Amino acid sequence: MSFKVEGDYFEACTCRASCPCIMLSPATEDTCDLVLAWHITEGQKDGVDLGGLNTVMAIRSPKQMTDGNWVAAVYLDDRATGAQEEALRAIFTGAAGGHLAGLAPLIGEVTGIERAPVAFTVENGSRSLKVGDLVEAEVSQLTGMDGSSPITISNPLLGAVTQPMRQAKSSALRYDGFFSFSTEGRNAFIADFAYQA
Fold first, then answer.
1. What is the 3-state secondary structure (H, E, C) of the chain?
2. How far is CA 164 from the centre of its chain?
3. Do 24 and 61 touch, CB atoms closer than 8 A?
């Protein structure tokens, strides 16, 4: 198998502050509930073009993420052809190798992998997401004390991306699927992503 994909990424979770999980510390709540979203701007797997497609994952982890036993649900863009769906499934579950393969052992249960309509919107420092009636998320990046530059975190101890993350904050975050949570005004990160294997 060989693939290379890149694009836009964001995540939002229930932690009250910048997610302590990336520093291998406990979440601020009893669980860390989060939504991760990827929009592929360009890329392919084994010659199958994946540009323009989206993938979303909802996760419920224990308070200490490194304890594993995450519960995860994956949503694949319903515009994908059969070959594209197979490629997305392999890449974003870690089955095809690459960075996400290193996180896959932390997942104890995959409750479902489903096709769904995914709307991923990029607007300057904001991102929004809708996955049918299941997921709704809106986040905006924060600026530092200089009033113009984003707050960035590079090379965290745990993360779904290896590129620098820009600190953001959610104005909405809801998931009603295999489990449920809803919050706002909590932690979020925006980043570019690039995976290959």
1. CCEEEEEEEEEEECCCCCCHHHHCCCCCCCEEEEEEEEEEEEEEECCEECCCCEEEEEEEEECCHHHCCEEEEEEEECCCCHHHHHHHHHHHCCCCCCHHHHHHHHEEEEEEEEEECEEEEEECCEEEEEECCCEEEEEEECECCCCCCECEECCCCCCCCCCCEEEEEEEEEEEECCCEEEECCCEEEEEEEEEEC
2. 14
3. no
Count of domains in the chain?
Answer: 1
Question: In this predicted model, what pLDDT tens digit does every residue of 56-104 receive, in sequence order?
Answer: 999 999 999 999 999 999 999 999 999 999 999 999 999 999 999 999 9
Contacts of 35 (CB under 8 A, 6+ apart): 11, 12, 13, 56, 57, 58, 59, 129, 135, 137, 173, 175
pTM of the predicted model over 0.85 = yes
Distance CA 177, CA 197 (A): 31
Residue-wise pLDDT for 15-65, tens only, equals 999 999 999 999 999 999 999 999 999 999 999 999 999 999 999 999 999
Length of the chain: 197
How far, in Å, CA of 104 to CA of 97, rounded?
10
Is residue 96 a contact partner of residue 50, using CB atoms and an 8 Å limit?
A: no
DSSP strand pairing (165-176 vs 180-183): antiparallel
Please give the residue range of the domain that contains residue 156. 3-196
